[in-house]
Amino acid sequence: QVQVVESGGGLVQAGGSLRLSCATSGRTFIGYAMGWFRQAPGKERMFVAAISWSGGTTYYADSVKGRFTISRDNAKNTVYLQMNSLKPEDTAVYYCAATKGAPIRVGNYDYWGQGTQVTVSS
Description:
By secondary structure, this protein is mainly β. Helix content is 0%, strand content 50%.
């Protein structure tokens, strides 16, 4: 059974930091890029960041560039999203997903986690 499980969400004040983790199991994700997306209430699911299988290439939405950092540890089957200088507009459910396609498009992702809530208070 394929599992993609996010953790690390919570409540933080504006300007604070959180680190999200995404653990995968149940199959091999060799060759898969991993991405983070977020969805605020009443809004579409949006791309946040992605990382290639090797970790050598990363992608970021303009809204998080310079504040968020994506990384991965393939030996641990885990992807991370370090979020600094958080803003109230970062409040959303954050999802982790895996793809062998172009990593920025939501529709290209095959495996999704259940999400973790991030709430940033002003």
